[in-house]
Amino acid sequence: MHITADFAAAVGKTPLIRLNRLSEETGCEILGKAEFMNPGGSVKDRAALWIVREHEKSGALQTGGTVVEGTAGNTGIGLAHICNARGYPCVIYMPDNQSPEKVEILKTLGAEVRVVPTVPYRDEMNYQKQAGRFAAGLDNGVWANQFDNTANRLAHYESTGPEIWRQTGGGVDAFVSSVGTGGTLAGVAAFLKERKADVRTVLADCMGSALYSYVTTGEAVMSEGPSITEGIGNSRVTDNLNGAPVDDAVQVTDQQMVTLVYRLLREEGWFFGSSTGLNLYAAAEVAKDMGPGHTVVTMLCDGGGKYQSRLFNREWLAEKGLNPD
Ligand code: PMP
Question: Of 64, 90, 269, 286, which cross-links 111 as Cys (Cβ 3.0–4.6 Å)?
Answer without folding.
Answer: 90
